[in-house]
Amino acid sequence: MRIELPGFGSYPLSEPTTWPAVDRPATSRIVYAAAHVVADPLGDNTPGSPAAVDWEATLRFRRHLWSLGLRVADAMDTAQRNMGLDWAATRELIRRSAAGARSYGDPATLVSCGAGTDHDPDAGTLDAITAAYAEQIETVQSAGAGVIVMASRQLARVASGPGDYHRVYGKLFGVAERPVILHWLGEMFDPNLAGYWGSRDVAAATESFLELIHANASMVDGVKVSLLDEEHEIGLRAALPEGVKLYTGDDFNYPSLIRTGSHALLGIFDAIAPAAAAALQVLDAAEASCTDEGRERLLAQYDEILAPTVPLSRKIFETPTYNYKTGIVFLAWLNGHQDAFAMVNGAQSARSLLHLSEVFRLADQAGLLADQELAVRRMKALLAVNGL
Known about the structure:
The protein is α/β, with parallel strands linked by helices and 388 residues long. The chain is built from 16 helices and ten strands. The strands form two sheets. An eight-stranded parallel beta barrel has the order 3-4-5-6-7-8-9-10, surrounded by four helices. Helix 6 packs parallel to helix 7 (202-215) and helix 13 runs antiparallel to helix 15. The protein is globular and about 60 Å long. The model has no long low-confidence stretch (mean pLDDT 97).
């Protein structure tokens, strides 16, 4: 099968991949896929409008992730927080996602949701920011989900140094009913978060971050770090208190970071879920292997599964990184998880046709076009709309 792709000419599709069925979660790592929302294609999702969400398709996609043994990180930046998903839609997403998880097990285990301050964009004092955080934490907890404390644009704007971050987060640990995941989102994902934890110098910010964690270790389940810096993450992982997990958010270097001990909370796992689930089962077998030879053979298989997904991920997350959601939703559409290539805030237009054509090619090479005929039909339709 071939398709004419802009920039690639007549492209021959690879042999289709059949991923093994996965009937249990991974045991060697805790792994979350940060999930996107599906826009209602008939809703007014023009830029600046309230989000109109196709709730059935959105929940169906989460069931797809749970069925592969993955946990779901919801209401995060992959779901377009701070980029179109307003608080009314976010509240509903949290409620529905936690309710949906009950069919698979404990919602507090299977889904964790972002709590931030975005519903109060004008919060201008530490007290107001703390109150905004507390409201969202209570919303997540009342739904029965786990809490991910997201980085706050408002706190980044108001804080005068590390002490202000410690004061706000210290109060939030008192609001939380159980240990939370702290999220450090780099400025490549959101330029408004530059200097988070009190310094633009990453070493100084890391020192502040670690001081907060060590002082509150009993209330920190783990930290989700999205700085796209493998060396920094390895150093941070080693410096965490015992029992506090490092959830990699590095969509460039995740295979090696997970291999060497990081857990994961990744947007790219939305798009590569079948490959990720298969690789994690192999990693489980490797770490349970009784022989060095068996372990090395299985680790080579793990690497073989994930290696083709890395060029795909790096393309989806290329600069400007915050527009990665467009590639994530594009692949969900190609793979039949939703009926339209539409996004809240009109974000489907955030990437070029040439970019999407390369995403198509790289997804094919990674074995991640579930139904090649459907994917080709849909890609041809997109090209036709664009005059090709």
